[in-house]
Write a structure and sequence with these properties.
The chain is an alpha/beta fold. The protein has helices spanning about 10-20, 25-30, 45-50, 70-85, 105-115, 135-145, 165-175, 180-190, 195-210, 215-225, and strands at about 1-5, 35-40, 60-65, 120-130, 150-155.
């Protein structure tokens, strides 16, 4: 399975990734079949090589690549800009042969060719902090693979501002706590759509109340500096 985790919210990305990792089994065993790769430094060929490695002591192998698509797109844009400025684009001596493809274009072709053939024993997770352009070739391919049940596209973005109080209330319930709606509204309004920061402040409030009644508006205004 190939999973694209994309979008600006770091908390949602990290929690979805943790869920994928936990499916491998005990952490000490899963670590043996997990590869973390920096997409800004790792060639596409190396990404493919890591995906082809068989799992070790786990039923599946996990390959996590961060920032590969964004970096590849930057390289593609740079190569196009360079080609348009190059004297060779006007037919000068020493110009690149007609139809020659840049290294970035070759890497893109290699990735597009490999993704549909990635082994079933590997879970490849592409982590991107920004949403790819809808016309992006890799994004379109992953959408096609998702329709075939071979990939998943997971947008990691915070709820709209008006929906944040409900997110806070639900988050508190997941932790066995209760927060009054007015308090959730104050917390969400003062912090905004930064879920990591919202979660940290909520945890602080839960610890403060220590299961002694619901979190109240006065608790938020006492402990949350943004609300003050």
């Amino acid at each position: 399975m190939i999973t694209l985790l994309y979008g600006p919210d770091e908390l949602l990305r990290s929690e979805r990734l943790a869920s994928i990792r936990s499916a491998l089994g005990p952490a000490e065993m899963a670590e043996l079949s997990t590869a973390w790769l920096d997409g800004r430094k790792t060639p596409v060929a190396e990404v493919c090589y890591n995906c082809d490695v068989m799992p070790f002591l786990t039923p599946r192998r996990l390959v996590i690549v961060e920032g590969l698509l964004a970096h590849l797109n930057k390289r593609l844009q740079a190569s196009k800009a360079s080609a348009s400025r190059s004297p060779g684009s006007k037919g000068s001596k020493g110009a690149a042969p007609a139809g020659a493809r840049s290294a970035a274009e070759q890497d893109l072709d290699a990735l597009l060719e490999y993704l549909p053939t990635a082994p079933d024993t590997t879970d490849l997770v592409l982590v991107e902090p920004d949403a790819p352009d809808k016309g992006d070739k890799v994004f379109k391919l992953l959408g096609k693979l998702a329709g075939e049940g071979k990939a998943a596209l997971a947008l990691c973005d915070a709820p709209a501002q008006q929906d944040l109080p409900e997110w806070v209330i639900h988050r508190a319930q997941q932790r066995g706590a209760h927060i009054e709606r007015e308090a959730a509204l104050d917390l969400a309004t003062s912090i905004g759509r930064n879920l990591r920061l919202l979660d940290n402040e909520l945890n602080k409030l839960i610890t403060y109340r220590n299961a002694e009644g619901p979190i109240r508006r006065q608790d938020v205004r006492l402990l949350v500096p943004y609300a003050q």
